[in-house]
Design a protein that fits this description.
It comes from Neovison vison (American mink). The protein contains 3 helices and 2 strands, in the order αβαβα. With 91 residues, it is mainly α.
Length: 91
Amino acid sequence: FELQAAVNLALDDQTLKLILIKFCSFQEPESLPHLVKRALRVLPTVTWRNLKSVPPNSRFWTQIRYHMPVKNSEGFRWNHLRSIPEFFHWK
């Protein structure tokens, strides 16, 4: 299962955040591994609704943005260069 591989990867790398995107009805089979069943219950799920989901201000994209990790707004600043040790000598 792709979901099981993604969950395992997310457990190893805490910087990853999983979002399930549902694009058709899904009947959960009994044979799913426990980890996948738990992921289906716990992870955020966003539903794609064909043409209704296309516009960037649709509910789909609003929910995707909501569940995405917070972007670092600090960005690059020139004063960060001061923290770099003077390893290089410029001539």
